[in-house]
C-alpha cells in the first residue's frame, strides 16, 4: 500500500472551503494544465454514494475514472474511493478541520495500490508519491492563491 498526505492551513472558514470544493469546476481548477481532466457527469452532486466519472488524458490515451463518494460530513470531510481507474485500490480522504472561525487545516490523505500488488507498490511507489506530491502541491497552492495567505504552511508526508 502506498500512503500520501498533504496538509495546509488556510485563511478561510471550513464551511466556505468545503463548499468551494462542491462547486462545478472546482476539480478542474485544482488540476494542473499538464494533466487534463474532464468531468463527464456535469450534473454531479456530492452526496453519500454518489459517483463522479472523470476522463483523464494520458498522452494520446483516454482513461475513465469512477470515484464513489462516502463518509460525507458537511463542512468536515468526504472520501472518494475508486470504482474504476488506473489503481488497484484508491481511497482519498478530504478533511477540513476548523482551527478558528477564519482558519482551516485541510488534509488530503491517500492510500492506494497499483495493479501488480505489493511488488509493484515497492518498485513504483516512489514514482506515485512523487506524482502525488506535485499534484497536491499544485492543488494546495491554487487554494492559497484563491483564499489568500501570506505564509503558506505546507506539510507533506509521503
Can you describe what's shown?
The chain has 158 residues and is of the alpha+beta class. The chain has three helices and eight strands. It has an eight-stranded antiparallel sheet. A hairpin with a 4-residue loop joins strand 5 and strand 6 (89-100).
Features:
158 residues, 8 strands, alpha+beta, 3 helices, Alpha-D-Glucose-1,6-Bisphosphate, Chain A, domain 4, globular, 42% strand
Quick overview:
The protein has 158 residues and is of the alpha+beta class. The chain is 28% helix and 42% strand. The longest helix is centred in the C-terminal third of the chain and has 31 residues, at 117-147.
Number of helices, where a helix is a run of at least 4 consecutive DSSP H or I residues: 3
Helix fraction bin: 25-40%
The outline comes out as globular
- How are the strands ordered across the major sheet? 2-3-4-5-6-7-1-8
End-to-end separation: 12 Å
The radius of gyration over CA amounts to: 15 Å
* Structure classification: alpha+beta
pLDDT averaged over residues: 90
Would you give the CATH topology?
Alpha-D-Glucose-1,6-Bisphosphate, Chain A, domain 4
Tally of discrete structural domains: 1
Note the topology:
Layout: E1 2-10, H1 14-22, H2 26-29, E2 37-39, E3 51-58, E4 61-73, E5 77-84, E6 89-100, E7 103-113, H3 117-147, E8 155-157
Amino acid at each position: 500500500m502506498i500512503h500520501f498526505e498533504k496538509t495546509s492551513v488556510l485563511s478561510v472558514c471550513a464551511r466556505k472551503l468545503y463548499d468551494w470544493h462542491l462547486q462545478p469546476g472546482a476539480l478542474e481548477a485544482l488540476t494542473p494544465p499538464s494533466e487534463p481532466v474532464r468531468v463527464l457527469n456535469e450534473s454531479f452532486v456530492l452526496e453519500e454514494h454518489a459517483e463522479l466519472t472523470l476522463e483523464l488524458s494520458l498522452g494520446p490515451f483516454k482513461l475513465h475514472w469512477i470515484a464513489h463518494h462516502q463518509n460525507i460530513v458537511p463542512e468536515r470531510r468526504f472520501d472518494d474511493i475508486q470504482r474504476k481507474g488506473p489503481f488497484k485500490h484508491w481511497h482519498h480522504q478530504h478533511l477540513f478541520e476548523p482551527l478558528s472561525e477564519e482558519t482551516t487545516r485541510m488534509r488530503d490523505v491517500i492510500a492506494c495500490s497499483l495493479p501488480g500488488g505489493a511488488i509493484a507498490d515497492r518498485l513504483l511507489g516512489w514514482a506515485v508519491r512523487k506524482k502525488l506530491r506535485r499534484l497536491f502541491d499544485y492543488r494546495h497552492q491554487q487554494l492559497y492563491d484563491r483564499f489568500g495567505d501570506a505564509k503558506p504552511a505546507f506539510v507533506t508526508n509521503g
